[in-house]
Design goal:
The protein contains 3 helices and 4 strands. By secondary structure, it is an alpha/beta fold.
Length: 98
């Protein structure tokens, strides 16, 4: 009788923060909190901003890989913020939320 062959080794778990940084921009604190908790649980580093002004300042200080961006921000339309972000280097991936 032959012994069973071992399967492939298990993939190592990614350490927290290994996936990159996501900036969450939303005027609703509860939305920011829930998204941050979910994304951090999946290994992302999540930073948050309640408005366009703070979001653009964060991008200048600590460029994210991805931006989750509310369309209807109080201080500036999310589409205008997305256009400004598209000009930045490195250019983050942008997801508009409504």
């Amino acid at each position: 009788m032959s012994s069973p062959r071992p399967g492939p080794p298990a993939a190592p778990e990614e350490p927290p923060g290994r996936r990159g940084t996501i900036l969450i921009v939303d005027g609703d604190a509860a939305v920011r909190r829930v998204l941050r908790l979910v994304l951090e649980g999946e290994g992302w580093r999540a930073i948050t901003a309640p408005d366009a002004r703070r979001a653009l300042a964060l991008v200048d200080d600590d460029p994210p890989d991805v931006v989750l961006l509310e369309v209807a921000l109080a201080d500036q339309p999310g589409t205008e913020v997305a256009a400004a972000l598209a000009q930045r280097q490195p250019r983050p991936r942008i997801v508009l939320m409504s």
